[in-house]
């Protein structure tokens, strides 16, 4: 019993397409998907929270940020923009492994993705001294806002080290890097 023509077969015999045969079109742009990620990391579809964490986690694996700052969900077949209130993830846990120069700070996001703060995954500070806004890079273009309780944990781990201008700065070490915990330009440093 045949259920339809086999995919990738011009003759319907299951053979691979001939060399040079036309490939299927790239993903079609569908415009804006009715998906939004709130500041607290909750994913919404048509205004209702996506209650299944594995589904939100699956969507997060196809999420990317373009150079213009827009967020896109892209599969091989469809692409569309989504709305993100701040950043797509929230760092809800931090595990400090080791001490001193060997310390690693492993952040867990609200979708259970784990990232170690490093040169490739810097901690950056925005906001003001009165209202600091800490972030960690999860994937290129995609950050996690560090939750307030996790930020307080970082403050407990903080130490002083010379900043770029030689003045002491309060910050944390992870994977051989020093990350100031004060909003400033050029935060995060190369390995020390």
What's a quick, concise take on this entry?
9% of the residues lie in helices and 42% in strands.
Overview of the molecule:
By secondary structure, the chain is mainly beta. It is built from two helices and 15 strands. It has helices at residues 53-60, 148-157, and strands at residues 28-37, 43-45, 48-49, 63-65, 71-74, 78-84, 89-97, 104-109, 114-116, 123-127, 132-139, 142-146, 159-162, 168-174, 177-180. Strands 3-2-1-6-5-4 form a six-stranded mixed β-sheet. Strands 9-8-7-12-11-10 form a six-stranded mixed β-sheet. It has a three-stranded antiparallel β-sheet with strand order 13-14-15, covered by helices on one side. It is elongated, with a radius of gyration of 22 Å.
**If you average the pLDDT, what whole number results?**
84
Shape: elongated
The level of helicity is under 10%
What amount of the residues lies in strands? 35-45%
Assigned CATH architecture of the largest domain: Roll
- What is the CATH T-level topology of the largest domain? duf1285 protein fold
Main beta-sheet strand count, sense and barrel state? 6 strands, mixed
Number of discrete domains:
2
Radius of gyration: 22 Å
CATH class of the largest domain reads Mainly Beta
Global structural class = mainly beta
Terminal CA distance? 67 Å
- Secondary-structure element series: EEEHEEEEEEEEEHEEE
**CATH superfamily grouping of the largest domain:** duf1285 protein
Number of strand elements: 15
Indicate the low-confidence ranges by residue numbers. Answer: 1-17, 186-192
Count, helices: 2
Give the neighbour order of strands across the main sheet. 3-2-1-6-5-4
